[in-house]
Amino acid sequence: MSRLALLAILLLMPLACEAQEEANERPEPRHAVIEIGIHRVDADVADTPTRRQRGLSGRPSLTAGRGMLFPYDPPGRPVFWMPDMHFDIDIVWIRAGRILGVTANIPHQVSPPLPRYSPPGPIDLVLEVPAGSAERNGWRVGDAVRVDPTPRYRPGATD
């Protein structure tokens, strides 16, 4: 290897490391495609403690066909609230590939104390979508839900 090539590598290494550090600080959310009947939702997956805590907070909006998916293993009865939300949502509670319940049209403009929302029973997935999605798409308790790829919660992962 020539000295010029070695010098170029040495000069560019800090830039590459800096870009990697920046990418590590802001990882891209993982995605999953959820199918309920003929409808598809492209969802970010809240698969780490930080992503779960942040959820959809701070986002200006969520377009139709988009959502956020929260995996739970083992199944549980998590409690959700809406801090720093800028839009209304529906929460779809899912267990074993079926809709267990829907909490529809949850308002984002609430003053403390923040209301809390829980599933009607233990769930293994929670899907948040724009308000009105469940009704508009005709989603009902018992409907089959397919998720690809199957998300897993990574409790020890850092964002």
Your description of this structure?
With 159 residues, this protein is an alpha+beta fold. The chain has one domain: Protein of unknown function DUF192 (Jelly Rolls), CATH 2.60.120. The chain contains three helices and seven strands, in the order H-E-E-H-E-E-E-E-H-E. It has a seven-stranded mixed beta sheet with strand order 5-4-6-3-2-1-7. The two termini are 38 Å apart.
What's the gist of this structure?
By secondary structure, this protein is of the alpha+beta class.
Pick out its properties.
159 residues; alpha+beta; 7-stranded mixed beta sheet; globular
Give the overall pLDDT as a whole number. 86
The low-pLDDT segments are 5-24
The helix fraction, in percent, is 10-25%
Strand content range: 25-35%
Looking at CATH, the homologous superfamily is: Protein of unknown function DUF192
Which H/E pattern describes the elements? HEEHEEEEHE
